[in-house]
Write a structure and sequence with these properties.
binds ligand 9MR; 15 helices; alpha/beta; globular; single chain; TIM Barrel
Length: 394
């Protein structure tokens, strides 16, 4: 090889290594991607892999493994409950920031991004608020003002520290609700009408010009009939399109990703297509609350557990591969990382459900964890390229 050719070859090799963001192997330090965390492997693709954090578990001195994994395995965190209105303002006029502040500090110490969850939702509202509206002591006009003040106060407190805010959560009904035609549901729509959605995004933007502002919902992982009357993905798509046309500063659509192995499951290309349709609106996307639960009919029976572990892993992987395939998909967050701390068994008891996360109750990684890891390791150009984040809309 001539000197010149050799230099060219060396330059190409260096550029390739840089592009893949990998560490070259040496005899003394063989490169082993399986030893890397999900968070580190995700960053090869500029993808944040995150988890929801349960503050009680994080602070439990008898459960140090929770804190260790929350700190080391993920590049992003979400407060599972600590930033909800009932947690922040349990008594009217008195904010309790302790837990939310603690999570933001934890993230900073561990160089993690924070997804803020959640500014406007019909659940986990303070009792003083819902009771006041119910007994008429809080008027509609006052309610709107209380919402404006809440959003402004919370966003302002964490200004510059939150990467993505879930501004509005779960505003749309499901086909099993009454009426079955999809509509704006819940406390806020009932009391303020659907305009609260545009208002909320505008108020959030006014308080933080840099955070990415998301609409977040479940059962929008794939499109269905394409009719917004019964296809929730289409409804959300059309809603966001309408908001953008009105100049509302919405930057992203969060697809929660609460799946169950007992349901018909999606395939990767279906989910990829859904993300692309959202992305075509010009917004970012993210999986924000991924878990895959199973019915536990015969606990301990390996003939049942094996297919459930396998199906759960496949579902986690479908969402990850779809996310990797679409450059607008900025983050992939699991809703709790261990079966020891998961909302699922508390919520679904007839029949009991569980096994929804990527580590078992003893913090041993499950098949789902290994599949996510392989997805991150084996992905790369030309089809999987680094994420492209939008500039926050003014
Ligand atoms: O995981 C959360 C659980 O601890 C709470 O009790 C529950 C109360 O509504 O909310 C859970 O988180 C929800 C999230 O905030 C929004 N999407 C659905 C999640 C699971 O219910």
């Amino acid at each position: 090889m001539t000197h010149r050719r050799w230099i060219t070859a060396a330059a190409v090799a260096v550029a390739t290594v840089a592009a893949l963001n990998t560490v070259p192997a040496t005899a003394s330090r063989p490169y082993d991607p399986t030893a890397q965390s999900l968070g580190a492997l995700g960053l090869r693709h500029k993808l944040h892999v995150g988890t929801a954090v349960d503050m009680a578990a994080l602070n439990d001195a008898n459960d140090p493994e929770y804190r260790r994994l929350a700190a080391s395995e993920f590049s992003s965190v979400t407060a599972e409950n600590a930033m909800k209105w009932e947690s922040l303002e349990p008594t009217r006029g008195t904010y309790d920031w302790a837990a939310a502040d603690q999570l933001v500090e934890f993230a900073k110490r561990n160089r993690q991004s924070v997804r803020g969850h959640v500014l406007v939702w019909h659940n986990q509202l303070p009792a003083w608020l819902t009771a006041g509206v119910a007994d008429g002591s809080i008027s509609k006009q006052e309610l709107r003002e209380l919402l404006r003040r809440h959003i402004t106060t919370v966003v302002n407190r964490y200004k510059g520290k939150i990467w993505q805010w879930d501004v509005v959560n779960e505003a749309v009904s499901d086909p099993w609700d009454t009426p079955s035609t999809l509509h704006y549901k819940g406390f806020w729509a009932q009391n303020l009408g659907p305009d609260y959605i545009a208002d909320a995004f505008r108020w959030a933007r006014a308080a933080d010009p840099r955070a990415l502002l998301f609409y977040n919902d479940y059962n929008i992982e794939a499109f269905g009939s394409g009719n917004p009357a019964d296809d929730k993905s289409q409804f959300v798509h059309d809603m966001v399109k309408g908001l953008l046309a009105q100049g509302v500063p919405i930057d992203g659509i969060g697809s929660q990703g609460h799946l169950g192995t007992q349901y018909g499951n999606y395939d990767t290309l279906q989910v990829t297509a859904a993300l692309k349709r959202f992305a075509a609106l010009g917004v970012a996307t993210a999986f924000t609350e991924v878990d895959v639960r199973s019915e536990l009919t015969e606990p301990g029976d390996s003939a049942e557990i094996n297919p459930r572990l396998q199906a759960s892993a496949a579902n986690f992987s479908v969402l990850m591969k779809a996310c990797l395939a679409v450059r607008s998909c900025l983050s992939y967050t699991v809703w709790g990382f261990s079966d020891r701390h998961s909302w699922v068994p508390e919520w679904f008891d007839d029949p009991p459900q569980g096994m929804a996360t990527i580590y078992d109750e003893n913090y041993q990684p499950k098949r789902a964890y290994h599949e996510l890891k392989s997805d991150l390791i084996f992905a790369g150009p030309p089809y999987v390229l680094p994420r492209v984040a939008p500039r926050p809309r003014g």
